[in-house]
Amino acid sequence: MAVTRREFLKIGGAGALLAGLPAGWAGGVWASDGPETPKLRIGIIALTDCSSIVMAHELGLFKKHGIESTISKEASWAVIRDRLTLGDNQATHMLLGTPYAATMGLQGSPVKPMIIPCYLNRNGQAITLTKALLDKGVKTPQQLKPLALAAKAQGSPMTFAMTYPPGTHAMWMRYWLASGGINPDKDIALITIPPPQMVANMKVGKMDGFCVGEPWNARAIADGIGFTAITTQQMWRDHPEKVFVFTEEFAGKNPKTVRAAVRAIVEASQWIDKLENRPRMAEVVSQPQYINTTKEIILGRMLGDYDYGDGRKEKDKYYMTFYDRFTNFPLKSHGVWWLTQFRRWGMVKEPPDYKGLVERIHRADIFREVAKDMGLETPREDMKKETLFDGVTFDPAEPEKYAKGFAVHSMA
Q1: Is 90 helix (H, G, I), strand (E, B) or coil?
Q2: Residue 219: in which H helix or E strand, if any?
Q3: CA-wise closest residue to 342 among 101, 65, 110
Q4: For the chain, which has fewer Cβ within 10 Å, the N-terminal or C-terminal residue?
Q5: Cross-strand bridge partners of residue 356
Q6: Could you tell me if 260 and 374 are in contact, meaning their C-beta atoms sit under 8 angstroms apart?
Q7: What is the tens place of the pLDDT at every residue in 183-205?
């Protein structure tokens, strides 16, 4: 006699079949191979460089690797830090310097060790100055210096903005100003403004310039209030930018979750760096729950089409990358560079533990493990010499010598 499906289930047929399978088997995968924490809430800021997180979610790549993802747009980098610290978010889009500041307890941050198993992007930020400065012929920090010193002497210093004191935009702005002989801690006012609020604050005259990620530099040009003085890739080709971060505590308890999430990020990054996919990416990330702007404002610079707002237009092949040229690999020498800048600008009073901190935070070992599983190549070395736009070479083997070698600094 034939048994209907309902009768089969009623007499426990499915249970009887499953009972014959080994423990831990769950629908085609071993439960023990899956993420320890399958639900991840991931923080982002409204910047184009959150795109690999957003697309890993939208393309179902987190789900593919056993993670139920929720994307949480936050108001500022301080909130990003705090929500990860408190455990509200389990992973996050973050500025490279923040895991170091949090691990070290700098800039008012509670001590909360964090790790970087993966980069999200390189390049693609910029320094925007007001049209008023362009009208005065100011495009370089050397041209800016006499105006800055004059304003300081009159008791009303010029104001420049970045997004978070230990972060990437702060370091690019400091480095650029200092290359022209301007001390960012003495000669101008350096303020903190969340990325999505940069353009509005420049419109009302609150600042003379800012450093931020896209699309807010392009937005300032579209709105006719500023121009791009320099892109960060012009300052340092293929420089590190945003990173994918977990607390050290969470990563220690959930190594499979971390690897699964990194794998999803890498796959999304591969998808984004096929330029034919960037229009679709721009359409998705421009939505209100993510960046909240128009697709067109995002897309131009994502294709390398740069309108600087001062008459210059060019095709920049070093536009923002998400995967190409080993973008995702967390090169340890970058951590050393950041610590030299903490030292240069007086954020630490004594030489930091360069080697120990970098080994703890920049987890190239985790990335190499994921890359091996995915059949991807990684750089042979974890350290690399770099030369920035001012011609000064950074040697990670001599960090203290490098930090002390700048004429403009804030060390005691």
Answers
A1: coil
A2: helix 216-222
A3: 101
A4: N
A5: none
A6: no
A7: 999 999 999 999 999 999 999 99
